[in-house]
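Quiz preparation item.
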């Protein structure tokens, strides 16, 4: 139960913080996608639809979600899609790119480049000096074009089409193209980012663009800055939560906690942390709220420990085998069910936990269903990582 004498932050307060700080309560909704990204620190970008759906659920006027999110990502570039924590693609506020790159990307990038050079050497492909030439040429092409697909880049730099065998003799052997592996490395190194999709806002095929220029930061300072930002938005959290979200070693988490002077609090699952002084309750009463959040939504995925907002018995229906959450229905700070879209566009949902879900809750959820239906329109959404309940609902 934690150390006696520490300030206690209970379930009711934690749910109130999510309602307000994650822009989910009606009165806390945002006006622009940038405000949503700032509130959540990072939007999961592995599934492109998640970015728009997570933003739309939190905007006061959801009707302009696609256009406004596109403006932020591709017009004004106030948001950037790039690799971040745990090798995962996220959308971050542009001012965070340097912090994310230094705090989570450098070590991963070094390993990925070394792995690429090693795999190419094993296959008898050209050496690291050749790869460096191709890299510099590719970046120069992007500088001239602004944005380009991998195929368009290879049209001007044919060496990107070179192929090499991977894991020969293994069950997972295959053939890799230089462009695929090199662009991933350049993304991890903070040199390129994903640009406009080739199709609609649900497309996973992206153009590439040069990354915004940013200063090189000290790793420890960047980790402290990122942890402070995340705890402000998502605290309280346990050490295990922080290690899981960042992908850092436990020693790095502890160093960052000490650097920002994080304050210990008592949670139901043990000792947690908040930024210094963040122990007072959320100001004012928070009205009950409903939300339809997408697969991989940051609120559901931000922590390792989720019992305070998600009953353990609901997990088998709402998560896939790799631990990815599917579309969820929320009522007043907790997950109560899931939703899906059928082939004809109908949005269907099911309550899995009926305790506390009365008529007012059902009416509010129906309102969110209609709100989502209106702004999604004719677009069809199929999560990249499908879960048991989503599959069942989608087929009727």
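Solution:
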């Amino acid at each position: 139960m934690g150390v006696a004498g520490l300030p206690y932050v209970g379930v009711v307060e934690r749910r109130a913080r999510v309602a307000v700080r994650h822009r989910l309560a009606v009165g806390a909704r945002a006006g622009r996608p940038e405000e949503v990204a700032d509130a959540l620190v990072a939007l999961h970008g592995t599934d492109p639809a998640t970015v728009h759906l997570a933003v739309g659920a939190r905007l006061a006027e959801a009707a302009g979600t696609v256009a406004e999110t596109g403006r932020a990502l591709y017009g004004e570039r106030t948001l950037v899609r790039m690799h971040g924590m745990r090798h995962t693609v996220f959308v971050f506020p542009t001012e965070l790119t340097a912090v994310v790159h230094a705090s989570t990307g450098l070590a991963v990038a070094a390993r990925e480049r070394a792995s690429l050079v090693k795999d190419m050497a094993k296959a008898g492909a050209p050496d690291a000096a050749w790869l460096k030439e191709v890299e510099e040429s590719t970046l120069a092409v992007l500088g001239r074009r602004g944005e380009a697909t991998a195929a368009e880049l290879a049209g001007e730099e044919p060496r990107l089409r070179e192929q090499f065998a991977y894991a020969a003799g293994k069950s997972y052997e295959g053939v890799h193209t230089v462009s695929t592996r090199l662009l991933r490395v350049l993304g991890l190194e903070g040199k390129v980012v994903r640009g406009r999709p080739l199709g609609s806002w649900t497309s996973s095929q992206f153009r590439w663009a040069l990354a915004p220029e940013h200063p090189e930061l000290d790793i420890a300072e960047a980790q402290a800055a990122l942890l402070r930002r995340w705890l402000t938005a998502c605290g309280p959290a346990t050490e295990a939560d922080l290690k899981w979200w960042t992908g850092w070693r436990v020693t790095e988490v502890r160093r960052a906690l000490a650097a920002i002077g994080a304050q210990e609090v008592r949670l139901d699952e043990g000792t947690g942390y908040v930024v210094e002084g963040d122990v007072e309750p959320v100001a004012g009463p928070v009205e009950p709220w409903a939300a339809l959040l997408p697969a991989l939504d940051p609120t559901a995925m931000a922590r390792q420990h989720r019992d305070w907002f998600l009953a353990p018995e609901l997990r088998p229906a709402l998560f896939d085998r790799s631990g990815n959450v599917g579309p969820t229905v929320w009522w007043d700070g907790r997950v109560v069910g899931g939703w899906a879209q059928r082939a004809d566009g109908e949005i269907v949902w099911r309550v899995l936990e009926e305790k506390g879900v009365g008529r007012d809750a059902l009416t509010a959820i129906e309102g969110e269903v209609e709100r989502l239906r209106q702004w999604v329109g004719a677009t069809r959404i199929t999560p990249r990582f499908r879960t048991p309940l989503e599959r069942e609902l989608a087929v009727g």
